[in-house]
Write a structure and sequence with these properties.
It is a single chain. Helix 3 links the parallel strand 1 and strand 2. Helix 1 runs parallel beside helix 3 and helix 4 packs parallel to helix 5. It contains five helices and three strands; from the N terminus they run H-H-E-H-E-H-E-H. The chain is an alpha/beta fold. It has one domain: Rossmann fold (3-Layer(aba) Sandwich), CATH 3.40.50. The protein starts with a helix and ends in a 7-residue tail after the last helix.
Length: about 120
């Protein structure tokens, strides 16, 4: 089951990365700023956060995108919302939130930043 979940997460991250950069020029892709908000554990958790990190690493390598990674430490919805707002205010677009616990904070923040793609 873990392998299936990991495969789905990697494919989702890769799909998101690819759809964000459908046929851009190298210059256009290098101007893209991707924000990645990990859940507790962050990069190195040997689970879904690492799957998202692998997708981000591939996008950096293949498309030359700029990225910022943030990780929740307390696990509260308010901290998740703060992390998403931090990325949105800094001009990151798209912003990818890892994990189902971001559903509520993602909805709240996305309504304040309608021009930013959240996923």
């Amino acid at each position: 089951m873990k392998k299936v979940f990991r495969l789905v997460a990697v494919l989702a991250a890769a799909t998101l990365a690819v759809t964000a950069f459908v046929a851009p020029s190298a210059t256009a892709a290098s101007k893209v700023k991707v924000g990645l908000a990990y859940d507790i554990g962050g990069r190195g958790d040997k689970s879904f956060n690492d799957s998202a990190a692998a997708g981000l690493d591939a996008a950096k390598k293949k498309f030359g995108v700029t990225a910022k990674e943030v990780t929740v430490t307390t696990g509260s919805d308010s901290e998740r919302e703060d992390k998403l707002r931090l990325l949105a205010k800094a001009g990151y677009n798209p912003i990818i939130a890892v994990g189902f616990l971001y559903a509520g904070p993602l909805k709240a923040v996305a309504s304040d930043y309608p021009k930013v793609q959240f996923g």
